[in-house]
Hints:
The complex is a heterodimer of chains A (398) and B (123). Chain A is α/β, with parallel strands linked by helices. Helices cover 39% and strands 13% of the residues of chain A. Chain B has one domain (4-120): Sufe protein. Chain: A (Alpha-Beta Complex), CATH 3.90.1010. Chain B has 5 helices and 3 strands. The longest helix of chain B has 21 residues, at 100-120.
Amino acid sequence: MECYFDHVATNPLREEVLEAMMPYLKEEFGNPLSVYPLGVRAREAIERAREQVAALINAKPSEIVFTSSGAEANNFALRGIAFAHQYEGKHIIVTRMEHHSILNPARFLEKLGFTVTYVNPDKYGMIDPEAVKKAITDETILISVIHASSEVGTIEPIKEIAEIAKERNITFHSDGVASVGNIDVDVKDLGVDLMSISAHQFYGPKGAGALYIREGQRIIPLIFGGIQESGRRAGTENVPAIVGMGKAAELAKEELPKRMEHVRRLRDKLVEGVLKIEKVHFTGHPEQRLPGHASFCVEYIEGEGMLLMLASKGIYAASGSACTSKALKASPVLLSMGIPSHVAHGSIVFSMGMGNTEEQIDYTLEEFPQIINRLRELSPYAKGWGDMEDGGSCIQKK
Amino acid sequence: MYSKEVMDHFMNPRNVGEMPDADGVGVEGNPVCGDVMKLFIKVKDDKIVDAKFQTFGCGAAIAVSSMITEMVKGKTLDEAMKISKEEVAKALGGLPPQKMHCSNLGADALKKAIEDYKQKHKN
């Protein structure tokens, strides 16, 4: 049986999305800036997609700028706002829950003379709005907080943080890559000034993303050149990808309640079964989390071994262990939540999607405990960590 | 990502487990960094007659441990001391660059096990 449980990594393309894209990969190849009908039709297709993406997050179409990815949207937001406001102040606030496409631009900005405060989460991966408030200085020009963590599933209190930012007149960005298309996201209700979106997180194509930029926001482009995207993002548009993103957004809006219910049911069943295994801890917030997201730390073994053995059974999952990263460091997100690194190495993430079934969960619940046992038989810590701290004191049981 | 040999030794590791009557034990690595190897050897007439391992770590770390326990059997202590990380990696059909430290760990755990034996059997 093949079970794909890595929907936070990417999703398959929906058939309807591919169909919508096809004409723009073939006969409708015109440049959207051209004045003849072939160009005009491409232009119209992009504007239709802009409306569809805007509708998904309750924005105006003019507030959507298409990018090549969620990572580009994050880079654009951080660097674009920092450069636009650098003469008002040079302080930026981000959190330890952020994706690399926020953390690395933040480090880059530090090298250019900006100062960055990294706010720590609690043990659930939750950012305390008060901690963000405390980090604000007279120099603060930008706050960026991830909406939902792809590593531990926790959904951050964006609305509360947005209110704090607004009170102090500070631009607020949220990375919505893992949330948009997977949970209800209303940018007006949340009160964010900017939000990053990625199409392949909701069954759209890879190579398509967007940045929501609230009307009236000043931002410096990441890519200079022509007048595409109202001069905010140069380069001939990736028309098929943008059309696909639009279609995927439309479907996500229509089907969201059904999708959330489907993955939540499967997720809850998986979590219940997995937590019966001894010395397995649930990571992230038990309730305030992505509906299809189940994340754990399995003590005494390491994540990559689990992934490889699961893969040999056709089960595809993810891990934040050191050995699965090229940097060979345990996940900074898990460490910032206070999980000791030897426990963090046993991290494993299952993320559900529309293709998953109850049979797949049953099958996984049969195979996974055996795999854990097998790896524990190999482990010198099968009988415990010895004098090292175990995971129990710092990770909650669900 | 991994060679056929690595996957074979990871999925079907040889010589797994504790050796209560081991003549030498070597531990290398640190669980904070993600890999720990514990190697047990049984020695007779200056030759390694049996070896076992316990490993906390990734696929490569487990495959290296398994391969090294196979490689040392029948070797004299001096021959075993000379097993290099490159030889282990080569026997496994190569390792990805970021996993070369795993074979290092294996070779070091073996040296520690041999030293432990020598320490215990000085006279």
